[in-house]
Structure prediction request, 139 residues.
Amino acid sequence: MFQDITTLLLDHTTFQDTVDIFVDRYRNMDAGIAIEIEARGFMFGPSIALAIGAKFVPFRKPRKLPGKVICEEYELEYGTDCLEMQVDAVQQGDRALIVDDLVATGGTLSAAIRLLECMGAQVVECGCVVGLPEVKVIG
Prediction:
């Protein structure tokens, strides 16, 4: 289900307020990595990462990241997809936050958590701008 968040992005005050909500929550969580999920998560992630002093790590669809990657498959309402990360971007023991624009079924977030845990990182928290509670959870 597509949700349009461009109106939020077009209003600089609302956009800043949205980023500030995440920054205020995450500032003291001692997370060294802010994970963002392609592609609309990239609109919030770098700003949040900079503000909390964390590195920004993008998780992307297949074949869009250079270098060695690992992949985690997840279910969609209409099939499956894969989420990739660069293997050298996350180290064992890293504390990570995951931020995405929207959570519907939780499939993408679950794949991101599995990728991080596979690398030995600790997921501190997952956050999203929009949640769709009316959508059926897969899995």
User: Anything to note?
Assistant: The helical segments are 6-10, 12-26, 45-52, 107-118. The chain has four helices and six strands.
